[in-house]
Structure formats: structure tokens, C-alpha cells
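ok so I'm stuck.
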Amino acid sequence: MAELTKLSTEEIAGNIRVFIIDNFLFGNEVEMVAAGESFMENGLIDSTGILELIEYVEETYSIEVEDHELIPENLDSLENISAFILRKKG
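replied:
not stuck anymore, here's the structure
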């Protein structure tokens, strides 16, 4: 993997997309929503799935998601998660 400080939004979104396809869609990429679409509103990930996604993000990108950061603006789409990770890596 590229150095984390040099990762782009697209690379992060790609990594998250693969995680979601593998863990929630059981390899069925067809069901994946567009980068800006809500995971929860589209029924892609439920509240338990969000917790799994957060764990993956924390481990993969060596960040800690604080309780006050658990909001849709940070975690409910590929675009939001990618931007959030880049902000956290600062």
C-alpha cells in the first residue's frame, strides 16, 4: 500500500469499496452504491455494519474515530469516509 500520507481520496474510496463488497455484499459488486450515496439509506450497511466498517478504518489507517465523529457526514458514503480519513491523517 502507498504511504498513507500520500493516499488520495480515490485510493481510500477504492479500499473501502473492496471491504464493503467483500464483507457486506459477499462479492456482489453490482449492489455497490455510487461514491456519494448513503450506505444506510440504500440499505447497504446497517448500524452493526457501520461498527465493523469503523473498526476496519481504524486498523487500516491507524486512526481513532471518536464518539463525536460517529455522524453520517463522516461515515455514511465512500466520499464522506475518504474525506474524513484524509482529515484525520491531516
